[in-house]
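Dear U.,

For the methods section draft, I wanted the exact inputs and outputs in one place so we can describe them consistently. I've listed the two proteins in the order they'll appear in the manuscript figures. Please don't edit the token lines directly; just add comments below if something needs changing.

First protein:
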Amino acid sequence: MNTLSPKTKGKPSWLRRRLPTGADYEKVRAIIQKGRLHTVCQEAACPNQFECFSSHTATFLIMGSRCTRNCRFCNIQSSPALPIPDPGEPARVAEAVMQMKLRYVVITSVTRDDLPDGGAGHFAETIFEIRARRPSVRIEVLIPDFLGDTVALRRVLEARPDVLNHNIETVPRLYSQVRPQADYQRSLALLKAVSVLRPSIASKSGLMLGLGERTAEVLQTLEDLYHCGVRLLTIGQYLQPSIDHLPVQRYVPPEEFDKLRKAVLAMGFEEVACGPFVRSSYHAREMYCKTPVAK
């Protein structure tokens, strides 16, 4: 995981894969399009979207497809002025969950620093609408930092999601380059508050590799997350969405991800998805089912 000084050229063989398509993929895509919904799978150009759609899985992106922040790694477009969230969206998401017959759903959003509660109320309403239609479904939310607003966080937690995910994304030294409008300590504080306010809700976070981080920095970040109560982790390879985004400093080989997974579990984490193609909601249901709270 040490940084490489020369620029990497081309993707290695382990990052090449065939993209599955077919009737199931098209069915999910049609449901999303008909419901006038967004998915992070599409907006962020996730490499797993074909696999997930074909498995009747999607991560819903609420409150629009534009973000008030401009992180250098993210493919979602930024805009300083955004419309008020659509009040009918939570019900449409819930209807799509019904049509897709999901047992596990992931809800995320763009960052809405323009809203007084950062969109926390919209998250809560979406959870309520889903539970009203499909009480047995497990719900994971992947939230922004709400600018550190604990009241906003409480509002989401009171809606009782099964998993609360907030990605740390990278090591603290790289924050000014990778996510200049975020704050490492603020994100840690939010994650710690989850375990304090609602210990029955599983706390989750995620990290990207390949941005120039050092091995010791990664291990320290993982220790920080563990001490803040995080027990579920995703660790994947950063892929440059366009020439306007940060370049990849290093492609981490699969065997290094395997070693890191063993190190993470040895630290005491309950479960980790660790590999080149792993993203925040990759195999989310499988991860949750392995936790004590799911049993």
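Second protein (the one for the lower panel):
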Amino acid sequence: MIVPMALFFVTMLLTKVSGPQCLGPNYENSYPYLFNSLLLVKNQAPAMIEHPGIVTQVFGGTILTTSGKGLGHRLVEAAA
């Protein structure tokens, strides 16, 4: 009874730790979200449409537009 409980406890501890986002399968590149947010600022369709990506892109476009760096191409140049 002790050995299975110990194995269960160790398994729960090891599966709980996944490490930082930049390691292995946890890595997600944020550049597509930025680029697609900039496309939305320029009133163009985003290149990557997937859930929850579109929500992130619309939120990013809204933040970029309200940031005060300009509109359209000037904002894209300021972000690039």
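Candidate sentences for the figure legend, describing the second protein: Helices lie at 2-16, 31-41, 53-66, 73-79. The radius of gyration is 20 Å.

Thanks,
Y.
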